[in-house]
# Entry
Amino acid sequence: MSPAPRAVVLVSGGLDSATVLAMARHEGFDCFALSFRYGQRHAVELAAAAAVCRQAGVAGHKVIDLDLRAIGGSALTAEIPVPKGRSDEAMAAGVPVTYVPARNTIFLGFALAWAEVLGASDIFIGVNALDYSGYPDCRPEFIAQFERLANLATRAGVEGAARFRIHAPLIAMTKAGIIAAGTALGVDYGLTRSCYDPAPDGAACGRCDSCLLRLRGFRDNGMTDPAPYTTPGD
# Structure
């Protein structure tokens, strides 16, 4: 029996990346998880990422240290307030202040480097273009162009040793659809953390954009979010 193909999976510790990891494993990939400690205010997600990876039984899990606070420009990496209690219309209007400049480009660059070293041709990322995210680096156009770059800017790509594929299986799914898919695959969402501005003990605020969308996704499935909250949300 030939060995399972390898894949690098970006795992933040949030709901979306946990679902993508489950999808990659369900597709038969030997998964190598990659997380980042980049100065994010919600660094509690890293403990969640470790728990998710342990449950999934990944082949390896790296946490890479970056200092994106040195660049700033985001409510997640600078002293900028995280928006709370926003309406659907407000969340859908433009790029939110929680956008971290070029974050997915940076993360995918590291994932590509590790994939080349591992001899892996597949990279999974949990980007989503629906649910009012507004992030420019979560669009299908970005994913398609990064895949093109991956095959132009690597030795494996230009020598024909690999044809890199960037998988973004959640990109056109609603949060409710993501939760339904992950639940069917056995994802324990109680291990995940998605809040942009959690309490010191890791409890979610229940009012930031990420919390509001997550809570709605569970409600739409007739479910209760198993993650801890300081407030019940909307």
